[in-house]
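#struct-help
A.M.: can someone run this one for me? Single chain, 233 residues.
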Amino acid sequence: MSFTKCHLFYITAKNQYYMICRYCKCNCIKKRKRSNGKQKFRCKTCKKYQQSSYTKIGISKEKYKWVHVLNNEGNCLSGIGRLLHISTSSVQRVIERLVASLTKPMINETGESYEMDELASFCGNKENRIWLIYAINRRTREIIDFFVGRRTSENIKKVLSCIEKLNPKHIYTDRLNIYESLISKDSHKIYPRCTNYIERKNLTLRMWLKRLSRKQYALQGRRRCCGIVCICL
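D.P.: on it. Structure tokens below:
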């Protein structure tokens, strides 16, 4: 599907066509053509370039499916755009729409054991560090909840509150001192190799998502994009 936005034209006494500027409503003159053959116009007053009409080509349902598949295969946004011949911003919008259509599953379980850890990455440059904080079920290996942001007690508590509603039997973490003040001693477990399952999950995520790698060529530009891609995966 496609739609076109047109601008008004009028004819002068000399039978010359002029276009009305979309910004200041003054006269525009013809100014060369684009590579696709469309005529460009330039406003005499505000000096801005514009076209007589703009056509936007919609993304087909088949490409929607391919964006989901290629994202889950670990391709970067620009790589998906090159393969499907669409812009990177369009790929990002498709992923955002796919994520908006997802619903958080209801977790009805009690008395289970969970592991909790943080996966470090960065946005733009290595000085701007972010963490993927999440928890998994030790038995099923399913992700219970996650949060993307700074590694602070407030952000960790957001994920921890979801686990506490399930009446956990044990919560296994590493030796980060924040956990000691947030988890009760009865359920909190810390000992060597107690978080093997979630550490294996960290390695899997780093292999599948380039933006989560420690030494990466695919830089993460926005924190919101990192969370969106993780949800879609």
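A.M.: thanks! The longest helix spans residues 88-100.
D.P.: also worth noting: The radius of gyration is 26 Å.
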